[in-house]
Backbone:
């Protein structure tokens, strides 16, 4: 039984901070360190690969030097319809849940200023770009009747199910300037302003063995709500090596986040069950992008971007929680690595586009203790895809140019598979640890994880209307 297993286990080295919920770590990487990359339908159809091509406001998402490539003004708006499905499998059962959202995904504009002088500087252009995406996510994991918790000699319950539930959004507003030097060197700089909202819960249900009733439990310090704003800056350059080849490079500073958060806490020796507020400051990784583009003619272009994170997430330390989070990222976080490939083919006024991107897993292999399907504890189980994993994205699109006006559409499929840790929460008042699952009447203390297998599939559609002037 679960309680008996806990009694004989020694406390293994936790792969994450004792006082933190798994979702805190997931959000640090998945939300705060992962700026929204929703552009126009053209940008999304080419997998967001435009670092050496440029030419519109979406350049601010990869390389601001692309603003200098533009030779005419342009404004566009993009509608997005997103579908996010998680299927969580555990102990021979699976739960699937799909979230559909419609929203304004992107707004962009470029103003071009041709310099009527004999100088080699041809254009100075100004761009503005706004990207917005829902970060709503729901993962529900089936229960297991073999996992039984004894609250006392007469009160036992089995694990019913578990859910991570996240609501919110992430947006990025960028302003920048790009310059064209002699039609073969382009320079750019941008300022980026971020806003986020996260409403997160971590809950479990246990079923009474005596009467079958359900009891709901919340993880310590959940549900929590966070409202954040951040700032970063970017610099970029594009060089035209020949009429057919370009290379580019860009650097984006860390994003400096200021996060106000509130959360529920339980079983405090002074306050009991109550509500608290705090502030956190987070610095996300410095990122570098290198790009190359091949432009065969006015009919075909191909671009490749490679992005590498150069630093790791780091919280400003106010107490033990931030110290433990920083220690986790220092020991287990891998620098971001992402490859994006995009192509466009033009047939008169028609545009055909396609792209592919791959992002590596953000964590090294992690070792945890977990519960087997029969309820036994398996020590030192290693996972190379715990919490989050690598990500693959395929995209296609088409467009039609009416000279001054244009319409673009695209479809994007993003998939990932990861191992989802849940239910672990140690209660050890002697050492100041209170991270279990709590109900008004009982608590669950567990030194091992339930680990489910999650398949995430996102199917996104984008429609852009634009005007060139």
Residues:
């Amino acid at each position: 039984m679960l309680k008996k297993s806990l009694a004989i286990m020694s406390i293994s080295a936790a792969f994450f901070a004792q006082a933190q919920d798994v979702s805190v770590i997931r959000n640090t990487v998945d939300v705060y360190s992962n700026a929204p990359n929703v552009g126009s339908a053209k940008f999304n159809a080419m997998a967001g690969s435009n670092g050496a091509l440029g030419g519109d406001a979406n350049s601010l998402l990869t390389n601001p030097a692309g603003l200098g490539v533009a030779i005419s003004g342009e404004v566009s708006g993009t509608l997005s319809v997103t579908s996010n499905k998680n299927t969580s499998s555990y102990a021979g059962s699976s739960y699937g849940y799909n979230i559909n959202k419609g929203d304004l995904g992107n707004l962009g504009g470029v103003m071009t200023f041709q310099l009527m002088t004999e100088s080699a500087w041809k254009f100075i252009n100004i761009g503005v770009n706004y990207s917005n995406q829902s970060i709503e996510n729901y993962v529900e994991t089936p229960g297991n009747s073999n996992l039984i918790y004894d609250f006392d000699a007469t009160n036992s319950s089995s694990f019913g199910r578990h859910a991570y539930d996240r609501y919110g959004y992430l947006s990025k507003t960028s302003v920048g300037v790009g310059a064209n030097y002699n039609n073969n060197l382009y320079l750019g700089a941008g300022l980026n302003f971020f806003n986020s909202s996260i409403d997160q819960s971590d809950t479990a249900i246990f079923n009474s063995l005596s009467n079958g009733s359900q009891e709901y439990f919340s993880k310590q310090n959940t549900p929590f709500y966070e409202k954040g704003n951040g700032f970063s800056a970017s610099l970029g350059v594009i060089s035209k090596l020949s009429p057919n080849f370009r290379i580019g490079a860009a650097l984006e500073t860390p994003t400096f986040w200021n996060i106000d958060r509130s959360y529920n806490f339980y079983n405090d020796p002074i306050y009991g069950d109550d509500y608290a507020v705090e502030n956190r400051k987070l610095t996300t990784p410095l990122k570098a992008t290198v790009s190359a583009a091949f432009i065969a003619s006015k009919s075909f272009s191909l671009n490749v971007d490679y992005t590498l994170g150069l630093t790791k997430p780091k919280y400003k330390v106010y107490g033990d929680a931030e110290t433990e989070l920083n220690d986790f990222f220092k020991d287990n976080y891998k620098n971001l690595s992402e490859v994006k490939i995009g192509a466009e083919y033009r047939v008169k006024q028609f545009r055909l586009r396609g792209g592919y991107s791959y992002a590596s897993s953000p964590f090294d292999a992690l070792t945890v203790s977990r519960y087997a399907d029969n309820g036994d504890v398996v020590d030192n189980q290693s996972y190379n895809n715990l919490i989050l994993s690598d990500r693959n994205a395929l995209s296609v699109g088409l467009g039609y140019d009416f000279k001054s006006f244009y319409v673009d559409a695209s479809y994007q499929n993003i998939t990932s598979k990861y191992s989802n840790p849940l239910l672990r929460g140690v209660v050890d008042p002697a050492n100041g640890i209170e991270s279990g699952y709590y109900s008004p009447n009982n608590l669950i203390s567990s030194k091992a994880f339930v680990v489910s297998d999650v398949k995430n599939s996102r199917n996104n559609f984008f429609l852009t209307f634009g005007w060139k002037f």
About this structure: Helices lie at 2-8, 22-32, 41-45, 320-332. The CA atoms of residues 327 and 363 lie 13 Å apart.
